[in-house]
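[step 3/7] fold_predict: job queued, chain A
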Amino acid sequence: MSQPIEVLRAWEGGPLREFAAIRPKPGWGIPYDGPKPYANSYICEECRKPRVGLYFLKVEADDAQIALATPASVDPTRCRERLWVCGACKSVLIPKQEQPKVLKGTPRPEARA
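[step 4/7] structure written:
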């Protein structure tokens, strides 16, 4: 009989993570001092899949801008949403900025002798 695995916050405001009271199989998870004694993978809040690492994103209350952040840098009075997401979801939520094109005909600096 397999043991139930629950998805819970690792800490208040922290990422989602898989937890179990008893290891469902040998080698699953690590001992953890949290909501349950064993923890395994982090869970992306966007795609809901287990991931090795996550990025913390914030959405400011006064606009719809999504930005990378650190949990300590978030002002709770201005932040309307916080997300822990995987790299693939981050690249969809925060598209890469287009690189400027090199200006044609711009003279190159002369090499110094």
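[step 5/7] annotate
Residues 87-93 form the longest helix (7 residues).
The beta strands are 6-9, 16-20, 30-31, 38-43, 50-51, 55-60, 66-68, 79-85.
exit 0
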